[in-house]
Structures are given as C-alpha cells and as structure tokens.
Specification:
Elements (H helix, E strand, L loop, with lengths): L6 E4 L9 H17 L2 E6 L9 H14 L5 E4 L4 H13 L3 E4 L3 H13 L15 H9 L5 E4 L5 E6 L3 E6 L7 E3 L7 H11 L4 E5 L3 H13 L6 E5 L19 H6 L5 H10 L12 H7 L14 H13 L3 H10 L7 H7 L6 H12 L9 H9 L10 H13 L3 H13 L7 H8 L1 H8 L8
The structure holds glutamic acid.
Glutamic acid binds next to helix 6.
Length: about 450
C-alpha cells in the first residue's frame, strides 16, 4: 500500500471572525502541511444554520488569504447533508445511535443531581430503557428525539503528536449527542464523516477538543475507518493567565490588519513560535518557519499571549523592510513623498508609519524653531560643517559646538533640539540633521521659520 499523502484541515465555524486564538491553529495546520508536503483543506463547519453567517465565511477566507495561509481544497459542511444522512442510517442500523426524549430542563436536573452527589455529570443512558410504547407516547406529546452515539465501554487510546500517550475509558465519557431534535446533525458527526471522506491524515486542534477526540475515535471505528493522527495544542491564555476569549474582540485579525497595520509575518512568526521550545522572533521568510516546524517543539503548558511582544516583532520587521516592499504601504498612508534615501535613514528609528510622517514633517517642515539663547544658537549655526554631509556630520559638528561654547549634556543638546525641531522630544538628532540639510538647519538655528505653515 502506498503511504497516504498528508492532508490536514483547518475547520473554523463561520459563526464569528478569526482571532489570534483560532488562527493559531490555522498557522500550525498550514506549517504542518508545508513541512509534510501535504494538502491543506479549508473546511467551514457551518451546520449551525442559525449562527453561521456568510459574512463570517467571507471574512475567514479574506483573513487567511491576507496571512498567506493559502488552502488547496475547500469544503462546506452544509453541502454534504446526503453523506451525513447515509452515515446516520448506518449508525442507526448498527445500533450505535439511540433516540432520547429528555428536554433540556430534564437533562439539567439530572446533571445537577449527579454533581450534588459528587458524581461526574455523565448521561445515565435512561433512554436505552424506553419501550416502544413510551417512545410513541413522547412522540404523541409532540416531543422529537435527539440522538446519542452509544459508546463502547472500552479503553480509548492514542499517541498524541503533542501530548504523548492519551487514555480514556469509554465508561467515563457521556454518549455524545449527534443529532439535534430538529434532525440536523451536530459538529461531532459531521467532522468525523468529513475527516473520513476527505482522507484527513492529521487532526490538529485545541486541547479543548481532547475529550471530543476520545468519542470521535469510536465514531471513526463505527464508520469503518481508522482515526487520523491527532495533535492537540495547549490553549493560549492572556498575559495574566486568564482566558483569552475575554479580550478576543481586539485581537481579531481584521483589527490587527486594518487598525494596527501589522505585517502578516509578525502574526505568523508570533503564532508559529508561541508555546514552542524555540525563541519567539520576527521571521521574514515563511520557509524558515516551515523548516523549523516540528510537533515535538510544542510544549504542553499554557502559553501566554503578549500583545506587546507581537507589536515588537512587527516593529522589528518594519525596521528591516526594503523600500520596494514598503512603498505601496507608504502610498496607502499618503506618504508618497518619502523616497528610498529617506526611508533607509529613518526606518530603524520608527515603530509604525505614523512615525515616518512625523520624521518627514520635522525634516522638511513646517517647523517653528524654539530659540532659548540666540547667541548660542548663532554660534552653533556658524559651526555647521560645509561640504557634503553624511552620517558623521553630526559628530563633527556637535564636538565643535561643545568645544567652542563649553556647553555639554542637556545644556548642549536641548537648545539645539528645540531650535532644529521646535520640540523637546522627537527623532534622533544625528539622523535628523542630515535629513534637514545644511541650509535649513542654519535658518532654523537662526530662528527663521521660513518653512512654517
Ligand atoms: N469547528 C470546530 C471548531 O472551531 C472544529 C474543531 C476541529 O478542528 O475539529 O472548534
């Protein structure tokens, strides 16, 4: 038998937008696919008709495309009802699905009673005892059944690619509900059927699915299939160790793209390396992330999401960006006046493109010089070096000013900064001086505001 070509799916529900929590799974699925030379299936788990929305389905695809996480195949669960119906029939014929008539209130009561006795809230399988008359009576009352999967009371084991050997006992698990009262199948069933039909070789998802996986393994077997390999990622917590979900709104991919103007590689680098044994660093080249990807790099402990660190990676990438690459972004930000020489001079001093705007303004005006001591400023102006200016000009000049005026430290730098920029804080003077140029520096030191608006 030829070995199966790796195929991994990312299966978001289009009931909301992508955020750092769920897109991390997408990043890791994509990296694993590339590393293993496999196929990436994007599957929309949209069986929840009420909560699934077309706008979310579109937003998910837009965000993944922007991140560069291209997929090879696409599927939607709502197109696959016929297959689900056929499998449901098989499971019913094989006695693996049974009808239950409890109302949500009755189930909540059972749960409460078990918990109050210190017992795990596992469904008691009372429905298995119902006679045909009792079922007919419920139906006559207008109750429609939901259907549960009958688990075998056997041990369930798998070797998780991240968690190592995992073991459950069938008897410690509740029979999962696979079909709702309205007859629609639930995620568990659809997911397993799709994983079988699309020849999925690896399931990568959050550790909140570990118990689901245990029940899914029996479903794979009941449908005559071998379960895929599984990797369960630890869930990310917020910086304080709490649930990330509370802050998820502001950490949406759309916000990071449109408001925070992040480079997708900052997000990719951060989410690829978070929770692994590798240092978190800004990586420009996706191939580097692919090459270092390995399931064994992932830790079982809960990684903390640090928004500031994400922004630091972004700054790092921005500061290394070539002019050709940044040009369209500068244009988009109405900074088309910025040329390559200016970009190269300022890039290592900025955190975002707004800083570029400020550098440009300070270099080219309008600036209203603030002169504290006109004699000192004039003396400094007279010492401005002649000839071509380069990155060394500042040092030559400031040493001369220091020697000639006897000033040093703040007494030296602050009046010069205020004269050149009109501000107490701002861009680094050594870089700035060469951008301002000799003529303009001289007139600012002389208090002339020719460039001021
Ligand atoms: N739609 C499920 C979720 O978003 C998919 C989980 C899985 O990967 O099976 O949680």
């Amino acid at each position: 038998m030829t070995p199966q070509k790796p195929k991994i799916r990312f299966a978001p529900s289009p009931t909301g937008k992508l955020h750092v929590g769920n897109v991390r799974t997408a990043v890791i699925v994509w990296l694993a696919v590339k590393k293993l030379g496999g196929t990436f299936l994007l599957r929309l788990d949209d069986t929840d008709v009420e909560r699934s929305k077309e706008e979310y389905a579109e937003a998910i695809q837009r965000d993944l495309t922007w991140l560069g996480l291209e997929w090879d195949e696409f599927a939607r669960q709502r197109d696959r009802q016929d297959r689900y119906d056929a499998c449901i029939q098989k499971l019913k014929d094989d006695g693996r699905l049974y009808a239950c008539y409890e109302t949500p209130e009755e189930l909540a009561l059972k749960r409460k009673s078990l918990l109050s006795r210190g017992l795990p809230p596992i469904y008691d399988r009372a429905a298995l005892e119902l006679s045909d008359e009792q079922k007919a009576k419920y139906e006559a009352e207008g109750r429609s059944p939901h259907w549960r999967f009958l688990l075998n009371y056997d041990p369930i084991e798998w070797d998780d690619l991240i968690r190592g050997p995992v073991k459950f006992e069938g008897k410690d698990l509740a029979d999962p509900v696979l079909i709702r009262e309205d007859g629609t199948p639930l995620y568990h069933l659809c997911s397993v059927i799709d994983d079988i039909d699309f020849d999925i070789t690896h399931i990568i998802r959050g550790e909140d699915h570990v118990t689901n996986t245990a029940t899914h393994i029996q479903m794979f077997e009941a449908l005559g299939a071998k379960p895929p390999l599984c990797a369960h990622l630890s869930l990310i917590s917020d910086a304080a160790g709490g649930k990330l979900s509370k802050r998820i709104g502001s950490l949406g991919i759309e916000t990071l793209r449109e408001e925070k103007k992040l480079n997708p590689m900052a997000i990719l680098s951060y989410l690829a390396l978070l929770g692994t044994s590798m240092p978190i660093e800004a990586v420009r080249d996706r191939q580097k992330l692919i090459d270092t990807f390995d399931f064994s790099n992932f830790s079982r402990s809960t990684p903390k999401f640090d928004e500031e660190e994400l922004y630091r990676l972004n700054t790092k990438l921005l500061q290394e960006t070539a002019f050709e690459e940044i040009k369209p972004h500068l244009q988009q930000a109405n900074l088309e006046q910025v040329d390559e020489a200016f970009w190269l001079a300022v890039r290592s001093n900025i955190e975002n493109l707004e800083d570029v705007r400020e550098w440009w303004r300070v270099a080219h005006g309008p600036v209203t010089p603030e002169i504290e001591d006109a004699d000192f400023a004039k003396a400094a102006a007279a010492l401005l070096p002649s000839g071509d200016w380069d990155e060394n000009t500042w040092n030559v000049w400031i040493n001369d000013v220091k020697e000639q005026t006897g000033r040093k430290g703040k007494q030296l730098f602050m009046p010069i900064r205020k004269a050149l920029t009109g501000m107490e804080h701002g861009p680094e003077l050594p870089v700035l001086l060469s951008l301002i140029g000799r003529a303009e520096a001289e007139s600012r030191l002389k208090g002339q505001t020719k460039n001021a608006a």
